[in-house]
Amino acid sequence: MNYPNGITKNTTHHHISYKNRGMDLEGDLNITNEYYRNIDRAYIYKKPTPIKIVNVDYQSRSLATIKEAYFQEPSTTDYNGIYKGKYIDFEAKETKSHTSFHLGNIHKHQIKHLENVIRHGGIAFLIIRFSTLDQTYFLKATDLLDFISHNNRKSIPLSYFQKKGYLIKHKLNPRLDYLEFVDQILEVNHE
Amino acid sequence: MNYPNGITKNTTHHHISYKNRGMDLEGDLNITNEYYRNIDRAYIYKKPTPIKIVNVDYQSRSLATIKEAYFQEPSTTDYNGIYKGKYIDFEAKETKSHTSFHLGNIHKHQIKHLENVIRHGGIAFLIIRFSTLDQTYFLKATDLLDFISHNNRKSIPLSYFQKKGYLIKHKLNPRLDYLEFVDQILEVNHE
């Protein structure tokens, strides 16, 4: 199995375990995006994890070993790319909650980033998995921003995803066909 | 000064020194992109450096220290974003050569990436600085691909940049106004 972000198996703390599934959301999205690339439907990929490098050992020019580094708070989202000539941008998160998605999971910089993407004409959304319910939702970033501006709540209830979002079907290929909902956005924008 | 990629000052090996200028190409582009964001002209940023993490010390949940990691060969370019609703993608490189730009500076995966961006309707280009000449060129990715497919040479001569590329003016703000040439591409595409 190919671990995302270049993290090898001894750092298993990154992997969220949950019922009935062999793979986490990031793994599912990597496979989905690879499928989209292979059939040339879209060109979407995951960005590298932002890391602050503090100390590097340069034994030789080709073999530099990073000896001390830290995970950085992301200033952008994890995924972007192109679909039908449009700039696509999204963040993907899992929650173990049965009832709501905590907004603390999305950093302020990422919310600002989604606003910027929308303002400049890109298509921005979230993919949120309620892993214990085995449900994965597509939510337009405009609906996220709308919720934040009209609510003081620190979490988005599941009911908001059920009302405003779209349940992504789990299929064999593509595993999570989220572009189905991007097509709907493009159709609405085109009308 | 803000070091790009989260690299702090003790890792000065990353900084290429050259004549008559206080800042390298990456620094100039970071300032340029920040300026474009501040005036809300474009939303373009640098991706994190891809790093393969081998060993992480998890003392606490909030303080994970990466103890061993390596720089990875990039599979995409360094910069992307949105301008006038279009997907923008480019790679930036410096050379100390007075006469040519060695193609070994651009990885095969990056060339494939630029092809994918073009095929899906994005705008792709290179920004190449001949640092000893103090000249920075904008070259459309289509002209890079055209050169590669018609030549067996391992480097692109300066004359090709002079003929097919555009010399980017060094200004106060924006420091490297490369969007001027993206506008030209958009105008041609629109005709």
Walk me through this protein's architecture:
Chain A is 29% helix and 30% strand. By secondary structure, the first copy, chain A, is α+β, with helices and mostly antiparallel strands. The first copy, chain A, has a single domain (19-48, 74-190), classed as 3-Layer(aba) Sandwich (Trna Endonuclease, Chain: A, domain 1), CATH 3.40.1350.10. In chain A, strands 1-4-5-7-8-10 form a 6-stranded mixed sheet, sandwiched between helices. Chain A has a two-stranded antiparallel sheet with strand order 2-3. In chain A, strand 7 and strand 8 (135-140) form a beta hairpin. The longest helix of chain A has 14 residues, at 25-38. Mean pLDDT of chain A is 88; it is low at 1-21.
Q: Roughly what is the average pLDDT of chain A, rounded to an integer?
A: 88
Radius of gyration of chain A: 18 Å
Any idea what the shape of chain A is? Answer: globular
SS summary, helix count of chain A:
5
Percent of residues of chain A in beta strands? 25-35%
The CATH architecture term of chain A is 3-Layer(aba) Sandwich
| Weakly predicted, low-confidence segments of chain A | 1-21
Order of helices and strands of chain A: HEEEEEEHEEHEHEH
Query: Largest interface here, residues on each chain?
Result: A-B, 48 and 48 residues
What's the end-to-end separation of chain A, in Å? 43 Å
CATH topology of chain A: Trna Endonuclease, Chain: A, domain 1
Brief overview:
The structure is a homodimer of 191-residue chains. Chain A has five helices and ten strands.
Notable features of this structure?
homodimer; six-stranded mixed β-sheet; 191 residues; globular; alpha+beta; Trna Endonuclease, Chain: A, domain 1
